[in-house]
Amino acid sequence: MEQKRVITIQDISCVGRCSLTVALPIISAAGIETSILPTAILSTHTGGFTGYTFRDLTDDIKPISEHWKTLGLKADALYTGYLGSREQLELVEQLFSDFREKTTIVLVDPAMADQGQLYPAFDLDFALGMRDLCAAADIVVPNITEATFMLEKPYPGSDYDQTYVEGLLRELAELGPRQVVLTGVSFEVGKLGIAAYDKKTNRFEYYFRDHIEGYYHGTGDIYSSALLGALLNDKPLIEAASIAVDFTVAAIQRTFDADTDRKYGVDFEHVLPLYIKLLS
Ligand code: PXL
User: Fold this and answer.
1) pTM for the full model?
2) What superfamily in CATH does domain 5-279 come from?
């Protein structure tokens, strides 16, 4: 069988385990060739570090994709995470139409906000641009904060129920994507997980694990990368979404036990064997 290829488009945060430094090893561990398009190089990510460097690579996006077109490069999935500007969102949307074929999975993780707040680099205008990019995707993976920014709703904190969550999922799917996985969902103190929706089957599915206290940086990127790796291994949506939860939770658990500085991200490296086992 021919090996599958992902093209993932995100920044390189050199230190702090997020974006490309987690997407590459995780998708590779899933047996998928991982081609990258770095959108910026930062000395660290922007969450919790100060004084980081930022080299914008926006001007390289088009020449890189033009070169790939001359190669006739094909991809089974196009995957975006953290993107730096509205201009990048537009360039990436163009790249989607250049490389998308009938069976290509376009996955957009609108990595831009958490816990009711946009990350430091972003504003409302960017959030609406991200909504347009999500509209062009097959599957989107927002957390509740990102979903509410894109749908221009107030952030509900922990004050929501199943009807509210299913409304968010439906509205996100109405933007365009067939499948939505909403992360950071909790209906019960002590339990945290995901809600998944497939527009074609009109089914909502859930998966929860015990909540590990604390905020762990980069786990959204780990989750989306693991989800995509599982989907490309032909796992159905809820199975892929659950494998990605189990893998992410295992990484968080190790980091919680080690009590390391959380801005450096979570120890997913030691649980890659678990991920590979869950995929088999
Ligand atoms: O998705 C997390 C992430 C990725 N890349 C950069 C970030 C963050 C979160 O803050 O700052 C540069």
Assistant:
1) 0.98
2) Ribokinase (3.40.1190.20)
